[in-house]
Amino acid sequence: MQQHFPIDAATPCLALVGVSKSFPGVRALQGVSLQLYPGQVTALIGENGAGKSTLVKILTGIYQPDEGVIQVGEVPVHLQGAQDAFRRGITAIHQETVLFDDLSVAENIYLGHAPRNRLGLVDWRALRLQAQKVLARMNAGHIDADARLKDLSIANKHLVAVARAMSIDAKIVVLDEPTAALSAKEIGELYQLIEFLKKEGKAILFISHKFDEIFRIADRYSVFRDGALVGQGLIKDTTQNEIVKLMVGRAVGQVFPKRQAKLGDFALKVSGLSYAREFADISFDLRKGEILGFYGLVGAGRSEVMQALFGLTRPDAGQIELDGVAIEARSPEDAVAAGLVYVPEDRGNQGIVAGLPIFMNVTLPSLARTSKSGVLRLREEFELARRYCERLDLRASSLSQDVATLSGGNQQKIVIAKWLATSPKIIILDEPTKGIDIGSKAAVHEFMSELVAEGLSVIMVSSELPEVLGMSDRVAVMRSGRIVEIFENKNLAAETLVRAAAGIGA
Amino acid sequence: MGGLRKSRETWLGLAILLLIGLITLRFPSFAAPSNLGEIFNDTAILIILAMGQMVVILTRSIDLSMAANLCFTGMAVAMLNAAHPGIPIIVLIGIAIVIGLALGAFNGVLVWKVGIPPIVVTLGTLTIFRGATFVLSGGKWVNADQMSPAFISFQRDILLGIPVLSWLAILTVFGFFIFLSRSSLGRFIYASGVNPTASVYAGINVGRTKFIAFCISGAVSGLAGYLWISRYVIASVEVANGFELNIIAACVIGGISIAGGIGSVAGAVLGALFLGIIGNALPVINVSPFWQMAISGTAILLAIVLNARGERKKGRIILKEAA
C-alpha cells in the first residue's frame, strides 16, 4: 500500500485541547485532547457512555464545549453550529445517514452550496454535472445523480454522504459506526472508500465497536472511558487485549450494595424466541430472587428482546413460560396481567407521562385495583401512590406535582414505583441508571437488592460494566441479535464480557 | 393539574362577564336572568356536542363528522316519528343515541384498526353521513306538521323553572365531569393524549381508548340530533351544515389543546357559552353576522396564542428545574 502521508506526520489538521462538557448531573467529557492527522484514520474507542457521541457532537458544532479549544489547522475556532462546522470542512457520516430521502442525489450533495446562475437561482445543469463528477472521482459513477435518494441502498447513501463531504473539499470526515447496517460486500466497498479518502489527504475519525475493523483500517487509536482520554497511540504498536484493558480498566464493585438473595424456583423460561430481523433463538431462564444481567453493545438486540417479552412486538417463534405456565403476551396489558413489567430505557418518551401529576403516573397501570366498576376511588389511589413513592424514597414536594418538573433520578423512581404497585413477579429494567445522578443510582441498586430479597426476579439490561458485574447473579451477553453466552458472575472479568460482546476470540 | 389551566378558565370566565357587562351597558335588559337563561338554552346543544368533541380531542384526535352524524340521526328519528307517532320520546332518544354511537364506532374502528388519521377518517365520514341522509330521506324534508306534538314539546317542557333542553345540557356536563375526573377510562383518555408512547408502555390500549372516544362523540351527536330537529322542527339534508367547526371552535376557545391531553369540562362549557353569547348578543346590537364570524375567529386565534404561550412557559420551568 502506497503511503502518501507519513504515519507519524507532524502537524494535525484538527485538534481538541482540554475540552470539557457537562450536562445536568453528568460530566460527559473532562479535559479531553484529540488530534486528527491528514491522510490518517484515527479510531475512537470506548464503551457505551464513554463520551464518544458527545465528542462527535462537539466536533460537528452541535454542542459547544464548556471549556477547551478546537483548532482547525493552527487556528482556534468557535464552531457555532452544524452549518458552521460543515463550512469549515468538518463533516460527519452517521450510522443512519441524515440526508433527504425525497431529494435527488445531486441535490443532497450540493444542499446549501448549490451552484448558482447569474440570476442567483440554482443552476440545475451545473449541479447535475458537478455532482456526477464528484461521484466519478470516488469510483461511484454507478450512482445516478438524478436518482431519488430513497431508492439507494444504505451503502450507496453513505457514498452520497461522502460525496457531499468531497463537494466542499472537507478536510475532516467523521465516520460514526458506518458499517453497522451494511452487508459484508458493502463493508468491503466502504473500506475502499476510506482508502480513497486517505489518499485524498482527509483526516478521518472512525468510530466503531468492531475490533477487526479497527485493526484493519485505523492508523491511530484514542480510547475513552467515563468521559476522559485514557490512552492513545499507533495501532501498529498495540494489541486488541491492550485496548480492551484500557476500555474497562477500573475498580469494580464498590458502589453496588448487592446482597445475595436466596434463589428459588424458575420464574421465567424463554426458549427459541425469534423475531424477524431483530433477534433469533433467544433462550434463557430466570429464578425467583435472581438478577440476570444482559450485556452487549448498543444495537445487539437486548431492548428488542425485552420489548417482545413485554408484548410490544409479537415474536415469530419461541415460547415464554411464566411460573411453569406458557403465556402469550400479545400486548403490554397481557404482560402486566401475567406479572411481567418493563421499565424502558427512554424514560422521557416511554416511561413517564409528563404533564400528569406524580400520583397519576404511579397508579396508571393499577387503576383497575383502585377503582370499583370503573369508578376511581381517589383516596385509595393516592394512598397507593404515596406508599410506593415512600418506598422508593422519592423526593418531591407533593404527589400532585407534574412529573416533568422532577430530576431524571426521581422520574426513574416513579417509573419503578409505577410497576411495583402492580405487584409484579418479574421486572425488566432497561438501562435503569442511565443519565441519573449518583445518589439516585445507588438508591436504584439498593432497591434492586431489596426486590430480589423479596423473591422477585429482575432482568437488568445494562451497558455499564461495573453495574452489570456488581448487580447480576448471571450475565447474558448478546451480539448481533443472539445470546453469545450466559456467564455465572463468579470471578467474572470485565474483559471477558467485552470480548464476548465484541466477538473477539480468547 | 396546574394552576395555569385553572387560570385560563378563570380568564375566559372573566372575558364572558366583561362581554355581558359591555352589552348590558347598551341594553340593560340583556343581563336579565330570563334572557341569560334563554341564551343558555340556545347554547345547550353546542355545549352537549362540545363535551363529545372534547373527549376526542383529548386523545389527540378530532371528529369532523359530528354535525353530519347529528343530521343523519336527526333525520332518522324524525322519519321514525312521522311513521310511528306512538313510539315514546324516551325510546326515540335512546334510538338516536344508539344510531349516533354506531356511526361514531364506525369512525373509531377506522382510526383504531385500520390506522387512518382521525382528520382523514372523519372528513370522509362527514360526506358519507350527509350522503346517507339524502339516501335515507330521498331528499325530502320532514316538517313540523309531520312530527308528533310530544316530539316537539318534550325539550320545551319546563321542569323546576328550566326547560328540559337546559336540564339535559346540565346533566351531560355533570356526567362528563364525573366521567373524566373519576373513571379509569377518563384517566386513560388524558394519559393517551399527553403521551401515547408512554401510555402504551404503561399497558394502556391507546387505540381502543381512541375508539371509545369516537363512540362517545358519536353517541353525543345522536342525542344532539334529536334535540336539534325537535328544536328547529325541520329535518333536512342541510341541517347543521358546517356546525362541526363551531363545535371545534368552542373546544379550542375553551383551552382544549389540539395536541391532546390538556383541557377541562369547565373550559369547553365556557368556550361554548362564549360563542353562544356572541351569537345572541351581536344581532341585538345590530352587528352584522359577518362581524360575528370575524369576532369568533379572533377569539379562536387569541385562544390558540394563549394556549401556545402556556405550553412554552411549561417548557421553561422544566429547564430551570433541571439546571
Q: Supply the number of structural domains of chain A.
A: 4
Based on the coordinates given, report the CATH architecture of chain B.
Orthogonal Bundle
Spans where pLDDT lies below 50 across 5 or more residues of chain B = 313-323
Overall number of structural domains of chain B? 1
Share of residues in helices of chain B: over 70%
User: Briefly, what CATH class of chain B?
Assistant: Mainly Alpha
Molecular shape of chain A: globular
CATH topology of chain B: the name is ABC transporter involved in vitamin B12 uptake, BtuC
Any idea what the radius of gyration of chain B is? 20 Å
Per CATH, the superfamily of the largest domain in chain A is P-loop containing nucleotide triphosphate hydrolases
Q: Characterize the largest beta sheet of chain A: strand count, sense, and whether it forms a barrel.
A: 6 strands, mixed
Describe this structure in words.
The complex is a heterodimer of chains A (506) and B (323). Chain A has 506 residues and is of the alpha/beta class. Chain A has four domains: 12-89 and 172-250, P-loop containing nucleotide triphosphate hydrolases (Rossmann fold); 104-170, no CATH class; 252-339 and 425-434 and 455-506, Rossmann fold, CATH 3.40.50; 349-423, no CATH class. Helices cover 32% and strands 25% of the residues of chain A. Chain A is built from 17 helices and 22 strands. Chain A has a six-stranded mixed sheet, with helices on both faces. In chain A, strands 16-19-20-13-21-22 form a six-stranded mixed sheet, with helices on both faces. A four-stranded antiparallel sheet of chain A has the order 2-1-4-5, covered by helices on one side. In chain A, a hairpin with a 3-residue loop joins β11 and β12 (279-287). The longest helix of chain A has 16 residues, at 184-199. Chain A starts with 13 loop residues before the first strand and ends with a helix. Chain B is mainly alpha-helical and 323 residues long. Chain B has one domain: ABC transporter involved in vitamin B12 uptake, BtuC, CATH 1.10.3470. Helices cover 76% and strands 1% of the residues of chain B. Chain B has 13 helices and two strands. Chain B has helices at 3-26, 33-58, 66-83, 89-114, 118-137, 149-153, 164-182, 184-194, 196-201, 206-232, 243-253, 265-284, 289-322, and strands spanning 158-159, 162-163. Chain B has a two-stranded antiparallel ribbon. In chain B, a hairpin with a 2-residue loop joins β1 and β2. Residues 313-323 of chain B have low confidence and may be disordered. The interface between A and B is medium-sized, with 34 and 29 residues.
